[in-house]
Amino acid sequence: MAEDDIIHTKDGTVDYQGNPANRKKTGTWKACPFIIGNECCERLAYYGMSSNLGMTLLALSASVHGIRPRCYAEDNCDPTVAQSAVFFVALYMVALGTGGIKPCVSSYGADQFDDTDETEKRHKSSFFNWFYFSINIGTRLYRNQKPGGSPLTRLCQVLVASFRKVQLAVPADRTLLYEIADAESNIRGSRKIEHTENLSFFDKAAVETEPDRIKGRVNPWRLCTVTQVEELKAIIRLLPIWATGIIFAAVYSQMSNLFVLQGERMDTHVGNSSFKIPPASLSIFDTLSVIFWVPIYDRIIVPVTRKFTGHKNGLTQLQRIGIGLFISIFAMIAAAMLELERLRLVRRHNYYERKEMPMSIFWQVPQYFLIGCAEVFTLVGQLEFFYEQAPDAMRSFCSALQLTTIALGNYLSSLLVSIVTSISTRNGKLGWIPDNLNYGHVQNFFWLLVVLSVINLGAFLLIAKWYTYKKPVGTLR
User: Fold this and answer.
1) Were 317 and a residue from 219, 239, 372, 385 both cysteine, which residue would form a disulfide, CB within 3.0 to 4.6 Å?
2) Residues 467 and 400 in one domain
3) Where in the cell is it found (predicted)?
4) What is the pLDDT of residues 363-389, one digit of tens each?
5) 197 and 305, same structural domain?
């Protein structure tokens, strides 16, 4: 039995035949190159499609009669309901496809490292760095985690059981709360979670009463284990940290929005040549920044900070996220300062009607580079944080939860633009973001994001200070 423990993993993972995974032949960095390579190809497909989707639909709308907008005058063309439907269906099909794979791949890769083995556990943190690195640039080896049922069902059971017992008092002796032995668990690879005192209302779900059993079997909609209750508490504790990622995502989204509009009004020539670089292409410097900072972080920053902090990863996940939020503020400051300088040039030389200023578009590189640096700290930190702090049975679910901040950040950015445009165009004014940015004040929008980011960072620091980390107990089941 002792020899078997050395040979096989103890976290419930199995090989492709369904047998306990062999430590030497499966998982770790033997399997991860294939997972990272798959993610690299998926990102190539996603960005190749999403970056060209607008131009593709625009070309189709001009050439295919059925989706050509109906024009009442030269500058008055409105899409029909069907044409709008084609546009949004295309967008949400891309979102559905990428949403299906992204939360699973990061969790799948992290599952290749056994939490009960200290060496593999250290390598897991490094995996998240190189996983994100692969985004930007063999079946027989994989370890598979057996499905443990729907996480949403488990959460709903706690909610229903808690409200059914709303009149009951939770016993002072928490050891009286319902829990089952490791061997009886139907979710292999998950650990029991130690009881916590906060959010005690949900403890009612673990208070055992006579009606909780039907013919000797527990009704899961009336009685839940302490671990189930703590899973719900863990999700609730994650939500404030999750919410602070939305503002960061709004800042991140400017690379495909206002940064591009700003670049269109600058000199897009490469040096003294006639070649012109498309403004949207400057996002390559964000990618290069990520490729530059991931090895620096993994090979230099982690070992150096480990000497000072004593933490195995150098920085805690929350410290890493906070540093990224701080860096993102300077990305917006750089964008605002550049726009101020560009507008000074416009006013000094009366370039209002000039499409391109005699100012190189490569002055935008610092703001792209800073956002790439912030990504390495915040987005990779979030990937690791949501995986590690999620209940063992809900890691893919929490990885998906983390990705929703990107979507909500984009929606928030659109909402802010709409609100700002509505307010700033009152009384016939051109507003902050007119069609011709030479008459606008885009820098004010960047300053708005700076203010929101500072407030968001302050909120994050308060939340992080009071955050209670998950406390698994016992062995992996």
Assistant:
1) 385
2) yes
3) Membrane
4) 999 999 999 999 999 998 998 898 888
5) no
